[in-house]
Amino acid sequence: MKKIIIINGPNLNLLGKREPEVYGSLDFESFYKALQIEFKEFDLEYFQSNIEGELIDKLQEVGFNYDGIVLNAAAYTHTSVGIGDAVKAISTPVIEVHISNTFSREAFRHQSYISTHAQGVILGFGLKSYNLALNSFK
Ligand code: CA2
Predict the structure, then answer these.
(1) pTM of this prediction?
(2) For the chain, how many structural domains are there in total?
(3) Is 23 a catalytic residue?
(4) 3-state DSSP assignment of residue 53
(5) Residue 57 belongs to what domain range?
(6) Which residues is 71 bridged to in the sheet?
């Protein structure tokens, strides 16, 4: 059974609670339960942190023994050389995901320190971006 982890970055714990017009009205925990049912063939895990170093620690912890990582580093996508370096350093393939189409938003969201080191990037499909990313590990 493939071991796959979803890693979410800062403020994604607010999903469903704030800004539903941008990010939808479903909280991630409820969505994650649906993902576990849809992707029964995976040993699925979920980790969220608002702290950059904790995200890097988790990438290092899973990045040599899991089969796949679905990473939404949220705002750190656009700022964190450290998370980009961690994605580069590990051997587990990383799919970068975003709920919104970051290219249709502010210019500072067009930059990603992760994309060059990711196996692929999926963005702009709402929460469905996560389903599409998980599908790619089938
Ligand atoms: O579209 C995405 O998935 C983002 O990674 C979300 C980040 C944003 O900084 C990126 O540019 C694009 C923000 C996540 C914050 O999520 C919230 C959810 C509900 C209420 C407030 C923030």
Answers:
(1) 0.96
(2) 1
(3) yes
(4) helix
(5) 2-135
(6) 7, 96
Residue 113 CA to its chain's centroid (Å): 14
Q: What tens digit of pLDDT does each residue of 12-42 get?
A: 999 988 778 878 889 999 999 999 999 999 9
Centre of ligand 1 from the C-alpha of residue 1, in Å: 31
Q: Give me the CATH number covering residue 97.
A: 3.40.50.9100
The residues, ordered by sequence, that sit 6+ positions from 124 with a Cβ below 8 Å of its Cβ are 98, 100, 101, 102, 103, 104
Number of H helices, E strands in the chain: 5, 5
The pick from 28, 97, 99 for probing ligand 1's pocket by mutation, whose C-beta has the most ligand atoms within 8 angstroms, reads 99
Helix (H, G, I), strand (E, B) or coil at 6: strand
Q: What are phi and psi of 122, to 5 degrees?
A: -130, 125
Q: What is the pLDDT of residues 39-69, one digit of tens each?
A: 999 999 999 999 999 999 999 999 999 999 9
Residue located via tokens 């709920």:
99
